[in-house]
Write a structure and sequence with these properties.
By secondary structure, this protein is α+β, with helices and mostly antiparallel strands. 49% of the residues lie in helices and 10% in strands.
């Protein structure tokens, strides 16, 4: 039985991912026709190849983020077929090899149990935790003996019955780049973006870097929403222009202006390198930078009341 993919977030395109008809296509082989045509230029032009490869990776990683592994693989195949330029063969092969790991997760988990035949191991299931003397691994099931006070009884389970926390640790060694990539993919849709980003950095490789980049964009979008909510900037919709105008009006209040400047500086210190932050450059230019001296309590600390 296949390992159930973790639930993905909503179908809202990830921050920073380019909008393309390919994202909305059914991801069939003909999706290649939906991708934006490569701009004209000489074959093997490195800057152009980098740009096209990054665009395709952004689309692929968006599907990985939503837990759509088959869709990600189909998008990669569609995006790299019949292009007007030649992509670097070694880089394409490395990315393809990583995507080919996705269907191996079930076998990796089963093999980890097979290596423990004859051993008593603690296993986290969805509803309970057992200590199993592993005997056989066959047909997608793990079987063995469970020791209780009254004796032993036979027990078996499928991978679908495993607690989701059990799966990542059985994908391979902590020093295995491929295993860390798969662990990062499993952690992507959850509430632990930092964990996933750290795993991708440990993994290395262009696909893992693209995954980490997307997580950075998502984190920037989340922190930006929190910043705007805390500042209580009234602008609908929250376009860069509408927000900048709302802040411009709010700047008449020095207290608001200072809070906005401090919030913006904090946000940019963490996310200035993201495409999401660059989309709101006009807003941050309107907010400006703090023009108050540092205080012992930190920039913008509330002075003692008389």
């Amino acid at each position: 039985e296949p390992v159930p993919p973790p639930p993905g977030p909503s179908a809202v395109p990830p921050a920073g991912a380019p909008e393309s008809p390919a994202r909305l296509a059914a991801l069939a082989p003909e999706a290649a026709e939906e991708l934006p045509p490569a701009p004209p230029g000489p074959r093997n032009a490195p800057p152009l190849a980098d740009q096209v490869l990054r665009q395709i990776l952004d689309l692929v990683v968006g599907e990985l983020y939503r837990g759509n592994y088959d869709a990600a693989t189909a998008l990669w195949a569609a995006g790299t077929r019949n292009l007007a330029i030649e992509l670097p063969a070694e880089r394409v092969a490395a990315i393809q090899a990583r995507l080919a790991l996705l269907p191996t997760m079930q076998d990796r988990v089963l093999n980890s149990f097979a290596e423990e035949r004859g051993k008593a191991v603690t296993v986290q299931l969805r509803n309970n935790k057992i200590t199993l003397l592993v005997q056989t691994v066959a047909n997608g099931r793990v079987s063995g003996l469970v020791q209780v006070e009254q004796g032993q009884f036979r027990y078996s389970f499928s991978l679908a019955e495993l607690n989701p926390r059990e799966i990542p640790r059985r994908l391979g060694s902590e020093n295995d780049p491929d295993a860390n990539f798969l662990r990062g993919v499993l952690a992507m849709p959850g509430a632990k973006p930092k964990t996933a980003r750290d795993l991708f950095l440990l993994s290395g490789g262009e696909l893992a870097e693209a995954c980490a980049r997307l997580l950075g964009e998502e984190e920037a979008r989340r922190d930006f929403t929190l910043m705007v909510d805390e500042l209580q900037v009234g602008a609908t919709p929250r376009t860069p222009e509408a927000l900048a105008e709302a802040v411009r009006r709010g700047n008449a209040d020095p207290a608001f202006q200072l809070r906005a400047q401090i919030a913006a500086r904090t946000f940019l210190s963490n996310h200035a390198g993201t495409r999401f932050a660059r989309q709101y450059q006009s807003l941050f230019e309107t907010i400006g930078t703090p023009r108050v001296p540092e205080t012992p309590g930190g920039l913008g600390a509330v002075p003692p009341q008389p």
